[in-house]
Amino acid sequence: MASISAKPQLFKILGSNPSRSAGARRPASIRCSTSQPPRPRRYRITLLPGDGIGPEVVSVAKDVLSVAGALEGIEFSYSELLMGGAAIDTVGVPLPEETLAKAKESDAVLLGAIGGYKWDGNAKPLKPETGLLQLRAGLGVFANLRPASVLPQLVDSSTLKKEVAEGVDLMVIRELTGGIYFGEPRGFGTNDAGVDIGFNTEVYSALEIDRIARVAFEVARKRRCKLCSVDKANVLEASMLWRKRVNEISSEFPDVQLSHMYVDNAAMQLIRDPRQFDTMVTNNIFGDILSDEASMLTGSIGMLPSASVSGSGPGLFEPIHGSAPDIAGQDKANPLATVLSVAMLLRYGLGEENAARRIEDAVIETLNKGFRTGDIHSSGMVLVGCKRMGEEVLKSVDSQKPVAALG
Ligand SMILES: NC(=O)C1=CN([C@@H]2O[C@H](COP(=O)(O)OP(=O)(O)OC[C@H]3O[C@@H](n4cnc5c(N)ncnc54)[C@H](O)[C@@H]3O)[C@@H](O)[C@H]2O)C=CC1
Ligand SMILES: CC(C)CC(=O)C(=O)O
Ligand SMILES: [Mg+2]
Predict the structure, then answer these.
(1) SS3 (DSSP) at 170
(2) CB 320 near ligand 2, within 6 Å
(3) N or C: which end of the chain has fewer CB within 10 A?
């Protein structure tokens, strides 16, 4: 099925600011302008459930996407494809050619998670994680947006004191297709003394830094105009170039206040005083680590969504967590990170702000009703599993009136 939507360009993708547009609905002039029902918008979604809790959370998120979309006159067609350990077991590689080809043809890609104990000992080309890196590189999605907001409903789930955690609203922009996860040379060998070594290389080109810096400045501009670039420029040459280029690009954004911080300090400051941060930009590995750390400000890694975009072609949307093999298959996973990832898919991938907001509103309503999975549970709340949490979110989406009917 062909999509009738134009692919949003990056400037348009970044033009929407979820934290600033709370409660926003389509303007009345658009809502009531025609007596004919609008033609449904149709999008092709690639689903990559993956491994562990991936299929559990993707199943919930898919249902939420379909229902929220239907309320906004959007139709989806889904192609479910193999990825990660599931693909290794079935066809022998972690990212089958067909999966990447179909993903590229679609309007957006939703990934659950990949990996697990079963494949931990595999050689690098046959690791699920290698497939994930190939997917990100294959789609060219270099800009990974990882928002972390402490919701008032979950402030007591944070391991930090309430007075430290409350009000946190930050966005980590992680460079996703460069740096040490991709750098050459890498491998195993022996040193001059004949001792085994393993090595990787952190490489960044000025072009890679410039493009992620521009995305970060644009995002910061739509938020509180504060950007903190995180690096290790006191030690690493790649970080020295990073800092130089970010300073250079900052001249294009004089309205954005830029600061720099070493990554070790940033890790500490995130716990000491997280509200000092608004938008953070950093390299692949530091962003991976700092966003997991930021997730605990919000109560659980099970709450954090992400969007990976390039400005052309389909975006990749996934929770920031992994396949959680320790709880897989037990209906214990929190599906909200994936549900919020489909909200990001609608907003940043398809430009469907109203449907995105419906989903975010439904998540808030579900939390307001007291439903909690184990990772965010606290006394007095209703403990539910992954499926039930999904059903409750669906009820909240369903209970919303179509936008066309809103006064
Ligand atoms: N994007 C991806 O697909 C990623 C895959 N991985 C892979 O996942 C596997 C497990 O990695 P870990 O380091 O254990 O990280 P993880 O994120 O899978 O789990 C860390 C901890 O958080 C919990 N957790 C994670 N997601 C949760 C959710 N939705 N609800 C409730 N609890 C949740 C887990 O139970 C576990 O205790 C590995 O094979 C790793 O390589 C890790 C990170 C990202
Ligand atoms: C395979 C890893 C790079 C995945 C991960 O930890 C992440 O993207 O957050
Ligand atoms: Mg990670």
Answers:
(1) strand
(2) yes
(3) C
| Each residue's pLDDT tens digit, 186-232 | 999 999 999 999 999 999 999 999 999 999 999 999 999 999 999 99
0.90 exceeded by pTM = yes
* Ligand with smallest separation from the Cα of 339: 1
Evaluate: CB of 172 within 6 angstroms of ligand 2. no
Ligand nearest to the CA of 322: 1
What does pLDDT average to over the chain?
91
Which residues make Cβ contacts (< 8 Å) with residue 121, sequence separation at least 6?
Answer: none
Can you tell me the distance from the alpha carbon of 119 to that of 116, in angstroms, rounded to the nearest whole number?
6
C-alpha 306/C-alpha 132 separation (Å) is: 14
> Which atom of ligand 1 lies closest to the CA of 374?
31
Considering the domain delimited by 1-20+41-142+310-399, tell me its CATH architecture.
3-Layer(aba) Sandwich (3.40)
Q: Whose CA is nearest to atom 11 of ligand 1?
A: 322
Domain range 153-298, CATH architecture: 3-Layer(aba) Sandwich (3.40)
Residue with tokens 């379909």: 66
**Ligand 2 touching residue 171 (CB < 6 A):** no
CA 322 to ligand 1: nearest atom: 18
The answer to whether residue 2 scores a pLDDT higher than 50 is no
Can you tell me the distance from the alpha carbon of 136 to that of 390, in angstroms, rounded to the nearest whole number?
27
pLDDT reported for residue 167: 96
Which atom of ligand 1 lies closest to the CA of 334? Answer: 30
Domain boundaries, the chain: 1-20+41-142+310-399, 153-298
d(CA 373, CA 391): 13
Nearest CA to ligand 1 atom 23: 324
State ipTM. Answer: 0.99
Given a contact cutoff of 8 angstroms between Cβ atoms, the answer to whether 233 and 206 are in contact is: no
